[in-house]
Amino acid sequence: MFSKEQIYEAVWKEHGMNCGSAVTNVVSQIRRKIGDGYIETVVGSGYRFVG
């Protein structure tokens, strides 16, 4: 499982404070491309990648 901050810091190489909407938007775009079954939202924590 990855928090939004962890994802932001890994992708953009900047501090992930207050980055929720940016990560949410990108994850939404990825879901449209690959389908809904691969990324699971963990409410209040972040995202989990499932196979």
Could you explain the architecture of this structure?
By secondary structure, the protein is α+β, with helices and mostly antiparallel strands. 47% of the residues lie in helices and 16% in strands. A two-stranded antiparallel sheet has the order 1-2. Strand 1 (39-42) and strand 2 form a beta hairpin.
Topology (elements, then pairings):
Layout: H1 4-12, H2 20-34, E1 39-42, E2 46-49
Antiparallel strand pairs: 1-2
Helix pairs in contact: 1-2
Q: Keywords, please?
A:
alpha+beta, 2 helices, 51 residues
Q: How are helices and strands ordered from N to C?
A: HHEE
Q: Give the number of DSSP strands.
A: 2
Instruction: Compute the number of helices.
Output: 2
Beta-strand portion reads: 15-25%
List low-pLDDT spans. Answer: none
Please give the largest β-sheet: 2 strands, antiparallel
Calculate Rg over CA atoms.
Answer: 11 Å
Strand order of the largest sheet: 1-2
Quick structural overview:
By secondary structure, this protein is α+β, with helices and mostly antiparallel strands.
